[in-house]
Design brief:
This protein is 14% helix and 51% strand. The longest helix has 21 residues.
Length: 435
């Protein structure tokens, strides 16, 4: 619109100014300045110091620090560098995003880890067809904190679900068609996901070519997806999700996933490990509501069908405590090494149990304080009633700079998920710069 007004103004001036003025001054307008550049480059730099208040009696503290006891607090310094860029010409496009994490603490020496989050090429021969090949994040699912139907994505961190995630190497196609009538849009997204040595080898069983897909429908103003995954690296799974705006400010969403022959390791009261196999069903229902005074409310209930029961977790905590006592008395760390291996699998992941309630309140510019957004996030384990509570303050009043202060309080008794975590609280400050 500004370009159009500028052209119109120059045209009027060229007719209104006398010839002498036109001879003395030359007015030019370079249309190339308004053309879209075929390339884009951006970066994000972050500095994030953190302070953990340790719970020296918890199971996960004992598991991590049994051979190197710490004090009451543990400081940690983190940095992050993300670079992204794309090049687009005609029907071709290439996009890449890198992530480098830097970490240093009194407990461990400094570490650096760099990885491509995404790096793929696109071919778009028509408006209805697009082909992508390379490393990509698919972003399936409608949930905010969890996505049980995200069969070809890495799991979100419910503590910070908006963080960018690393993708997988895939070949995928998007076919989109617009229609008249109640069904307004239809799309089909087939995905090939290979798992071999050094290619997606963290996804599951090796030497497999997996096939996934998503069918999307915009039906009666409701977004609906049907999704599936098969191929052998993971057991077969099927799912569906939906999202609909009930009013301008009120949205409801849900997901359901069925996982066949899911296997997990459990411990009996004596610490003996066995593997169980069963069909699992996970689902989520949530709402997002924006009030007239700019308060955003997000709440979700999540049932994790692949999660552990209270008895499973209590047996695991008991095995850690027995192993810790054995190490203290004999120096034998075998039981703790085995428990750490289980933690690296399912027991140590975010929200490993069955039922959770998530709530986030975010108020934009309260009391007319520009660029300021306070928020409060709660994550409640409905099985053992332990929880985390995270207030935060966000300020974006400096160009290209984001400042965020968060404090997480972790509350729970013995043998509960949050009560057995290694820390009672965590304070973090994040300073991010975009360019």
């Amino acid at each position: 619109m500004k370009t159009f007004l500028g052209l119109a103004l120059l045209t009027i001036m060229s007719f209104c100014l006398p010839a002498r003025g036109a001879a003395q001054d030359t007015y030019t307008f370079d249309l190339s300045e308004t053309e879209k550049k075929p390339y884009h480059f951006g970066a994000y730099l972050e500095f994030k110091p953190m302070l953990y208040g340790l719970d020296r009696n918890s199971a996960f503290y004992k598991l991590r620090f049994y051979n190197d006891p710490q004090g009451q607090t543990l400081p940690e310094w983190n940095g992050r560098v993300q670079l992204e860029g794309n090049y687009e010409r005609d029907i071709y496009r290439f996009y890449a995003k890198t992530n480098t994490d830097l970490k240093y603490s009194d407990y461990a020496d400094g570490s650096e880890q760099s990885v491509f989050y995404e790096a793929y090429g696109s071919l778009k021969p028509s408006s209805s067809l697009k082909i992508d090949v390379g490393k990509k994040t698919m972003k399936w699912g409608k949930g905010y904190a969890w996505n049980p139907v995200a069969f070809v994505d890495r799991p979100k961190d419910p503590d910070d679900p908006e963080l960018a995630m690393e993708g997988y190497i895939v070949a995928t196609t998007d076919y989109i068609r617009s229609l008249d009538g109640p069904l307004k849009t239809f799309s089909f997204t087939p995905v090939l996901l290979p798992v071999y040595d050094h290619i997606n080898d963290s996804f599951g069983n090796n030497n497999k070519l997996n096939f996934a897909g998503r069918l999307y429908f915009l039906l009666y103003d409701t977004d609906i997806d049907f999704l599936f995954l098969t191929g052998g690296s993971r057991t077969e799974r099927y799912g569906a999700d939906f999202s609909r705006n009930l009013t301008t400010n009120w949205e409801i969403h849900g997901e359901y996933a069925a996982i066949r022959n899911y296997q997990k390791k459990v411990l009996d009261p004596n610490g003996v490990t066995s593997q169980v196999e069963e069909d699992a069903h996970s689902y989520l229902i949530g709402i997002r509501y924006l009030t007239a005074f700019d308060l955003t409310v997000i709440t979700e209930y999540y049932h994790n069908g692949t999660g552990f029961s209270i008895d499973d977790m209590e047996n695991y905590y008991a095995s850690i405590n027995r192993g810790y006592d054995t190490y203290r008395s004999t120096g034998n760390e075998t039981a703790l090494v085995n428990a750490r291996t289980l933690a690296e699998g399912s027991y140590g992941k975010s929200n490993p149990m069955e039922d959770y309630l998530y709530l986030r309140l975010s108020q934009k510019e309260p009391f007319d304080i520009l660029y300021f957004t306070p928020a409060l996030t709660g994550n409640l384990n409905l099985d053992d009633w332990s929880y985390s509570l995270t207030p935060e303050l966000l300020y974006t009043g400096i160009t290209n700079v984001e400042l965020r202060l968060r404090t997480s309080f972790i509350v729970g008794g013995g043998d509960t998920e949050f009560g057995e975590k290694q820390n009672d609280y965590r304070i973090e400050f994040r300073a991010g710069y975009y360019f």
